[in-house]
Amino acid sequence: MRLSIRAIAIQPRASSFISQLDHTFSLSKSNTCSQFNKSLFSWNQLKPNSSKCRFPKLRHRWKQYQGINHWEGLLDPLDDNLRLEILRYGHFVDAAYCSFDFDYSSLTYATCLYSKKRLLDRCGLTNYGYRLSKNLRVTCGIHVPTWINKMFRWNCTRSSWIGYVAICERKKEIIRLGRRDIVIAFRGTITCLEWLENLRATLTYLPGHVEAEESIGPMVQKGFLSLYTSKTTTHGSLQEMVREEIERVMKTYTNEPLSLTLTGHSLGAALAILSAYDITATFKNAPMITVVSFGGPRVGNESFRKQLEQNGIKILRIVNSDDVVTKVPGFVVNLDDVASQGDVNMGILSQWLHKRIEEMQLVYADIGQELRLSSKESPYLTNGDVAMCHDLKTYLHLVKNFISSSCS
């Protein structure tokens, strides 16, 4: 008996995940680096070219590569120009990881290691032609007991640096791109409270939206929304920071073509989608918005997906088939497949299950145009564990070497 329901545990063995933060998705890079050491020549080629950027001249075709036609005809086989653009945005995300202070014993833990002027230079992105204009912080909405906070101060960091806004300012790069590009880059989950927010997997309504009588309104994962909107007495919310900077940028560059590209890995991919939605909902004259998502989890329900499409947001979701994070949280239910099979009993059962899952607020939808890859196709990643399959370096490695779904 086949039900058209794809069910995945929301976060299996959560306590194990939290107790091993340094060894799983925190990108401490130990497992990944050991695997890639077998192919250093391959990973070295993923790094930004320190002497000269050799990216394609997009000019009048830039909207095509930003997804104006949903990347039709560019993904399978993967267009070489699009490949280079994906890798370029991946380097911006990698810079967010490289700039994060991972040292728990440091007084500057969970902050940015470099100043705004030095960050892109220290991460090898000097020749990309961008200037970092704003640092971004994220705040967790979870409040832990005071005694835990005193005993594990580093483990209960509520507010931490998560990424940045960078503006393309080099004239040659603006000409190559065909517009002035603004990049917002987000890292993935690192701190303990961020992990706890990830586990709050039930859906919740977006602010300003309520359940309609005939249909369910747009809903998103509770933990992601909490991270996006929470703030402290000393730090504003990520939502406020993004809105403030986008408003400033739009006022500064009013008489030239602009594009806004949000990119992130894992949790960062989810926050990129929430930020993109919030920008279009806040600014009616927003420039073209594209999200390049690496290994992102599910973010919202079907109504939220439709709202993103109506707002004109283009999302390229890069997925490793062997990455469990892209299959959580919640369930994806497709009743159309059952209806097409013509089995009345199965249809009734599926509708009943869908209703029960919906009541638990766990019915999600996959969002965006998908570029599906597989780490099993790479001879260097055949023994990859869960962390390896989710690592950003794995994604960049797969993008660099992917030709088409019919060619290994």
Automatic annotation (TrEMBL):
Organism domain of life: Eukaryota
Subcellular location: Plastid, Chloroplast
Domain Fungal lipase-type: 183-331
One annotated GO biological process: lipid catabolic process
Keyword Isomerase tagged: no
InterPro entries per record: AB_hydrolase_fold, Fungal_lipase-type
Gene Ontology terms, MF aspect: galactolipase activity; phospholipase A1 activity
Segments forming a coiled coil: none
GO cellular-component term (any): chloroplast
Alphabetical keyword list: Chloroplast, Hydrolase, Lipid degradation, Lipid metabolism, Plastid, Transit peptide
Protein family (similarity comment): Belongs to the AB hydrolase superfamily. Lipase family.
Protein name: Fungal lipase-type domain-containing protein
Organism of this sequence: Canavalia gladiata (Sword bean)
